[in-house]
């Protein structure tokens, strides 16, 4: 049982780290124009040698970008909260009970990641100025999609897991 518990904790921590990196790191969109510096764009900034805020990110035209920002932050918060709830329930639950509350919070994190990555996929062209539209997805975008099944599997593991001696 101790090995399973260690695996679950490591799996959850790995999912949280992926969410943090995907939310913070500036590699959601990569543009490499011929003969110039590579430009990296994330949810907040576009960077080449210097960083500048995403154009019109504070306006109603960028509502899609704001939705992606909000859901990625929510996913990260939900993942961290579910870990702390799991640790609390580990010591508070009676033997034989399930980690339902932890599972619900982790599944909400999974849903938020899926929503954020799906919105970004569907609306990526409207996020960036015309000079940045000819690019490709970056590593943070890929990490967001990888963290989706990890948080989903983690939530399902907590749903099935019973507290044993």
From TrEMBL:
It is found in: Apical cell membrane; Cytoplasm, Perinuclear region; Golgi apparatus membrane; Membrane raft. Its main location: membrane. PROSITE patterns: PMP22_2. The keyword Nucleus applies. It is a multi-pass membrane protein. One of its GO terms (cellular component) is nucleus. The chain crosses the membrane at residues 63-87, 99-122, 142-161. Pfam families: PMP22_Claudin. GO terms for biological process: regulation of glomerular filtration. Keywords: Cell membrane, Cytoplasm, Golgi apparatus, Membrane, Nucleus, Transmembrane, Transmembrane helix. Belongs to the PMP-22/EMP/MP20 family. Interacts with PTK2; regulates PTK2 activation and localization. Interacts with ITGB3; regulates the levels of the heterodimer ITGA5-ITGB3 integrin surface expression. Interacts with P2RX7 (via C-terminus). Interacts with ITGB1; the interaction may be direct or indirect and ITGB1 has a heterodimer form. This is Epithelial membrane protein 2. It comes from Sander lucioperca (Pike-perch). The gene is emp2.
């Amino acid at each position: 049982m101790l090995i399973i518990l260690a695996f679950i904790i490591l799996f959850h921590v790995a999912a949280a780290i992926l969410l943090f990196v995907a939310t913070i790191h500036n590699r959601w969109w990569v543009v490499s124009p011929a003969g110039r510096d590579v430009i990296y764009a994330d949810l907040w900034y576009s960077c080449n040698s210097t960083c500048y805020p995403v154009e019109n990110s504070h306006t109603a035209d960028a509502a899609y970008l704001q939705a992606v920002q909000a859901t990625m932050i929510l996913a990260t918060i939900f993942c961290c909260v579910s870990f702390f709830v799991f640790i609390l329930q580990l010591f508070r639950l009676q033997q034989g009970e399930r980690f339902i509350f932890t599972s619900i919070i982790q599944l909400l994190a999974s849903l938020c990641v899926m929503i954020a990555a799906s919105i970004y996929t569907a609306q990526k062209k409207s996020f960036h100025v015309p000079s940045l539209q000819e690019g490709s997805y970056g590593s943070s975008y890929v990490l967001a999609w990888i963290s989706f099944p990890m948080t989903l599997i983690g939530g399902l593991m907590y749903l099935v897991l019973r507290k044993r001696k």
